[in-house]
Amino acid sequence: xxxxxxxxxxxxxxxxxxxxxxxxxxxxxxxxxxxxxxxxxxxxxxxxxxxxxxxxxxxxxxxxxxxxxxxxxxxxxxxxxxxxxxxxxxxxxxxxxxxxxxxxxxxxxxxxxxxxxxxxxxxxxxxxxxxxxxxxxxxxxxxxxxxxxxxxxxxxxxxxxxxxxxxxxxxxxxxxxxxxxxxxxxxxxxxxxxxxxxxxxxxxxxxxxxxxxxxxxxxxxxxxxxxxxxxxx
Amino acid sequence: xxxxxxxxxxxxxxxxxxxxxxxxxxxxxxxxxxxxxxxxxxxxxxxxxxxxxxxxxxxxxxxxxxxxxxxxxxxxxxxxxxxxxxxxxxxxxxxxxxxxxxxxxxxxxxxxxxxxxxxxxxxxxxxxxxxxxxxxxxxxxxxxxxxxxxxxxxxxxxxxxxxxxxxxxxxxxxxxxxxxxxxxxxxxxxxxxxxxxxxxxxxxxxxxxxxxxxxxxxxxxxxxxxxxxxxxx
Amino acid sequence: xxxxxxxxxxxxxxxxxxxxxxxxxxxxxxxxxxxxxxxxxxxxxxxxxxxxxxxxxxxxxxxxxxxxxxxxxxxxxxxxxxxxxxxxxxxxxxxxxxxxxxxxxxxxxxxxxxxxxxxxxxxxxxxxxxxxxxxxxxxxxxxxxxxxxxxxxxxxxxxxxxxxxxxxxxxxxxxxxxxxxxxxxxxxxxxxxxxxxxxxxxxxxxxxxxxxxxxxxxxxxxxxxxxxxxxxx
Amino acid sequence: xxxxxxxxxxxxxxxxxxxxxxxxxxxxxxxxxxxxxxxxxxxxxxxxxxxxxxxxxxxxxxxxxxxxxxxxxxxxxxxxxxxxxxxxxxxxxxxxxxxxxxxxxxxxxxxxxxxxxxxxxxxxxxxxxxxxxxxxxxxxxxxxxxxxxxxxxxxxxxxxxxxxxxxxxxxxxxxxxxxxxxxxxxxxxxxxxxxxxxxxxxxxxxxxxxxxxxxxxxxxxxxxxxxxxxxxx
Amino acid sequence: xxxxxxxxxxxxxxxxxxxxxxxxxxxxxxxxxxxxxxxxxxxxxxxxxxxxxxxxxxxxxxxxxxxxxxxxxxxxxxxxxxxxxxxxxxxxxxxxxxxxxxxxxxxxxxxxxxxxxxxxxxxxxxxxxxxxxxxxxxxxxxxxxxxxxxxxxxxxxxxxxxxxxxxxxxxxxxxxxxxxxxxxxxxxxxxxxxxxxxxxxxxxxxxxxxxxxxxxxxxxxxxxxxxxxxxxx
Amino acid sequence: xxxxxxxxxxxxxxxxxxxxxxxxxxxxxxxxxxxxxxxxxxxxxxxxxxxxxxxxxxxxxxxxxxxxxxxxxxxxxxxxxxxxxxxxxxxxxxxxxxxxxxxxxxxxxxxxxxxxxxxxxxxxxxxxxxxxxxxxxxxxxxxxxxxxxxxxxxxxxxxxxxxxxxxxxxxxxxxxxxxxxxxxxxxxxxxxxxxxxxxxxxxxxxxxxxxxxxxxxxxxxxxxxxxxxxxxx
Lengths: 233, 233, 233, 233, 233, 233
Description:
The structure is a homohexamer.
Chain A: E1 4-7, H1 14-20, H2 25-31, E2 43-44, E3 51-60, H3 66-74, E4 79-85, E5 92-94, H4 96-104, E6 110-116, H5 119-125, E7 129-134, E8 146-147, E9 151-153, E10 156-158, E11 163-167, E12 170-174, H6 179-201, H7 206-209, H8 212-218, E13 222-225
Parallel strand pairs in A: 3-4, 4-6, 5-6, 6-7
Antiparallel strand pairs in A: 2-7, 3-8, 3-11, 9-10, 11-12
């Protein structure tokens, strides 16, 4: 791990991010080619919240939140702080005091592949958090790490300035350069889904709506009345 | 995996299932001999919901929801769709559009040993779901599987037409042929528990109510005042 | 496992425990030297509840809740029951009836490194529970265990009579002899945090508030403008 | 769980099983339609052993091996004992003494979705075991279960008398009625693989051997020289 | 965590430990009442090794091996070093150099609830290790911890000076004061098992040898010929 | 996921990689600043093998090995194939036939964050593999993915052409541009460790060799004779 704090990282266009956010994590993930989802391991500590912003990243030593303090200084309004650790940890690296600090700087929320604590207070404050764990286990401030370097969570790479969207389905990362294209694709998808929703509500089947009957046949799926004797494969 | 869609599967008597449902998952599981519980890995995406119905089963390839679409056609009012994958997966195979389709067909809910997404929308719709994960990770529709074959979740076998009951404690499966017997046993258990509840609320101990003092003695459990020196076993 | 029920275990001073409780799990854990936290694996079945009390411990065989019944008799008002198993288990060892019995004896809640069931009913009753799982899987009453022996959960040792505090962040154990000292340390911490909260809300950085800039420099952390070529280490 | 010991269960034809066994777990699993594999959670305690036989099943309470003793009586030469528990357990339910007993009855090995112990002695004896864990944790003999009922491991259903084959890749179950068909399909597969092996060793690519180039094109996979700018999806 | 290094900890009688060791982990665990087993999560990095000694304990911060160096000084010939972390970690806290140091002091092996590295070299050296993981992930030496305080691994409490025995089945801890009693009980068990082994090898069943037929009947287990229709429970 | 096969990816200088390899995974990981380790989840299927080479990457759909076939064509002598999946999977995506094909192309081994099968045959062939699982579960060839795009395993980013070194401790990735610098740093580290090894073998303590006594004191670690009463923190 290079022990650096990268300053002046460019951000994705926040106006575009703010248009992308209400479309939701699942839609955006699909729109960019089923990519960028940080995995089911990151869960919200609150229900019904959807936020978007630009990533500031922090890479911490397990059991140590020194670099979160360093990262706070690099944050500006519209950012979401994205934290991970050099090896897996569930320790409670973040709580009410850090949230107070970030909120004062205009940070919109936290995504952390580790633990958080003071969750009752965080809910009361309305500071949104997606984390890998809730844990009261305290941390130290002894070991160096990095701020605004590329990090990897759930098999996805998050670079400083990327767009981050988070809701009840989890967290998705859109590369900074792809946000405009992602917005167009996501909006097209929403329009198409609206049509599908109506058809399905009217009783049409996905088999017909998506033309899947031929696919089933082509893959050798047979319809068999219950009770028919049936051999292998 | 046999690539078949079994049609015309018989269902458990829905009127009996509807009598069994309000007795709850834990009671029904006990009443059928501590059997049929699909395990703590399936959690509801909503709180305070209890539903019952008859199983339509789908066996999908990991990362692929083709067979859920095929299963939808086999569903009828009163069914619960039960989905698993050929190997473990947390991908978000089910969301708002599929729920819209199932709801239009009278399906009462989903039990899925994989992931779901659009959970905010699913909660708003009031479509109940028990799943192994929440994940926005999208899936494809490329690989064959099976509908209405026996599947296995949490070490239990679920056959098409079995009764499924789900609530905040998880999901239980009652074999189709056993529903009437299960109902009688569960009702008897409820009556017995009501008596126990009153006795315990009045301060009686389970040790006495269930005659456990002799059991403890027979198994060599000794009462030892605090501070007594005490050797092995 | 010694098959004993230890009677007459002394308790921590309940008046002190009741002063310690509102300070919360994270604060108390920090105040006793980042110790005693039972880990992120124990989660509340309810939100927004904070309770404290004195530990009665039960060590059960997996799949067997015989010793919970034996433990109930050893409980008195102000206690919290702390249950674990001889090897890991998620079975639903505790439900509404046992909660009714414990509530009748003045027990304030349950901490269990295993499963609970009837969670809808437990929430309705207002009986607070922290558990490793929710599971309807039933248990038997066949195998001996122990009551009020030291047990270990999440790498921490819980002794009968220790103070237990639990809230949305999890569960912390304070050794019986340390409660007074813990209270003083926790109160001092709360006072100090109140000052920090105000400073951070006013925009001061943790880097300055906690004097971390020197630490970063001493550990070789460099500030690097974005785009600077950068070698190893 | 029904507390029964089913006697007189028919077995798959052992002569056919003995022909199927040397073809190996992976080949047999493929030959029956990518089915029957008990999952990567069952690992051999020894290297380089491949055995086959007919299943005798035991369903035990966690932490309790009473039913393994009951199952031993139902075993006959050519059988493999298949054990699981009513809820997940890693306890060491099986060791040298039980292996001695089974070996004396002509049992060919053990498949257990729980723990085993005395692994040094088992290796010395040459009694083959596939297990979910190695654990010295002892068990009791207190709670009823079942012998020769259908059980489920790794999402697969194992019925008494089914063919079981196990090697370094894990364990596969072939339904009793399908063994002859499985043998023919597996032999055909082996013949086909032998051809493929030679072609691949000679430098032919799977892309050509299996005709995958069209598949890639049909799915929109593009060949892009390194360094080409590249947008979404 | 109290930041202390406790000096002068008394040890179990090494001559007794050396008599206990060859009886093996499983036998000793049984002999002390099915207690003290540190769980299936600790696996040997080598096969076929059995060692015993007296515990020196170290409690480290995750990702930090400072206290292992401090612990080395407290070790003397006949000791086994037992290491855990304040919260779960798989980092490679121990390797060839530390093993060289411990071997030079007469330490007999390492038990670590975290990771080790240089495993090829450790095997070549013949320094025995039981660990929770193999990991090359390096650690720092920045954060305080404790030496020779009670620690907890796998739900068991290990105190400085306790006897530790480790083999292919894992690791067991015998309280310092109980070693003599454990030896007598383990030797008795070995003698009894030798008789059982012969009887079982001769074809006697555990059902008869341990008198289990009555137990089965008392618990309602019925013998049912295959094919008999069979209701619930 | 972009469905692309990137051709003509440059490789790290193989002569340098071949000098780096014998220094081992742990040393190289330390030499590049405790970076690049792919985590304890990747384990060798063989003991005592150390290989190095240049990465060709493949990103597959779970349960689908189509892109491994596509990746084989992009491999050349000196490469190691690095495979991961779009979401976690343990399926056996790779076996003897693919190994035969890769070996014919001069590929030195496989690193796969998924399952492999035919492990007995792979060991016999001497084709080295590091994998997340051993599983006979077969896969299909139906869904697109990518070859030679950056992938992420264990929180580390692997880019095509990076140096990969693997041994009994796991797998490390060195960025292509850093190999020369890594070699110098690793060689320096080896020299330094040789000195330390001798000192430690002679009985010197790490406490003195690394100057840790002051660190302990500065962090408040106190030496306390056994039996001393001791308060909090």
